[in-house]
Design goal:
Layout: E1 9-13, H1 15-24, E2 29-35, H2 41-53, E3 56-60, H3 62-68, E4 79-84, H4 92-98, E5 104-109, H5 114-127, E6 131-135, H6 144-150, H7 153-156, E7 159-162, H8 165-174, E8 178-182, E9 188-189, E10 199-204, H9 212-217, E11 220-223, H10 235-249
Parallel strand pairs: 2-3, 5-6, 5-10, 6-7, 8-10, 8-11, 9-11
Antiparallel strand pairs: 1-4, 2-4
């Protein structure tokens, strides 16, 4: 889908996602579709925010909303927004140059499931990460499902899809950002290990883990201590454990 300017667009679904888009980058919101039967407080919040941002709101049927979201059905909660794809930062370097204090980054290698990506964006935003980075060839893009699961984080947190992840990690190292790979065979446990304040946490896909070149770029490999019978955690849970521990130490 493209806007009149030719720029690609995507659908943000649900009240959290739509309001987050209006607050974080209102100029990216092209139009909003709101269930014609909704007159409650949440609908009024969207109408008020859209009015302040100068964004057109179309009152449509629930069936029309389901069609626009491509199968999300009731999970759109009665509202979607058409959002121009882009970021307030021209590049990852642009973002890093503007960070005050040590960067906290999440790197995803091979996370192709949109539900997992949405959950990772949500926990990264909650932990105060500055950005999420993924390779273009092995990653889910931001779409309606990701936006819904992320509950507003997809609109607020920069998400960079890079051509060469291994090279990007090398460039982060040149900025003195410590690259920490998470692996069940890691050299140390998360809570006993020490690391600098500036960090990028690398998570591989469940089952496959990180690719060889990604692993080789890591400064260290750590593991999350497991006390129960399960051998691993969902990638979004593991990301949350690591990012909140990193934030706790800063």
């Amino acid at each position: 889908m493209n806007s009149k300017s030719g720029a690609p667009t995507r659908i943000a679904a649900g009240f959290h996602a739509v309001l987050a888009a209006l607050r974080a980058n209102p100029r990216s919101v092209l139009e909003i579709h709101l269930d014609e039967t909704r007159e409650d407080g949440r609908a009024k919040d969207v109408l008020s925010a859209a009015d302040k941002a100068g964004v057109r709101v179309l009152r449509v049927t629930a069936e029309r909303l389901s069609g626009l979201t491509g199968g999300l059905h009731g999970r759109h909660q009665g509202v979607i927004a058409r959002v121009q794809i882009g970021t307030q930062f021209k590049s990852l370097d642009d973002l890093l140059d503007g960070i005050e204090g040590p960067p906290l980054l999440l790197v995803l290698d091979g996370v192709t499931d949109p539900h997992n990506l949405g959950a990772c964006l949500r926990v990264a935003d909650a932990a105060g990460a500055h950005a999420v980075i993924a390779p273009k060839d092995r990653a889910a893009g931001i779409g309606a499902i990701v936006s819904k699961v992320a509950s507003g984080a997809a609109e607020a947190l920069p998400y960079f899809m890079v051509t060469n992840l291994a090279r990007t990690l090398s460039e982060l190292k040149e900025r003195e950002i410590w690259i920490i790979g998470m692996d069940e065979r890691g050299e140390q446990g998360l809570y006993e290990a020490q690391w600098p304040a500036a960090t990028a946490w690398v998570m591989g896909a469940e089952g496959e883990g990180m690719r060889r070149l990604t692993r080789e770029r890591c400064d260290t490999l750590l593991r999350i201590p497991m006390s129960g019978t399960v051998a691993s955690l969902n990638v979004s849970v593991a990301a949350g454990v690591c990012l909140f521990e990193a934030r706790r130490r800063t």
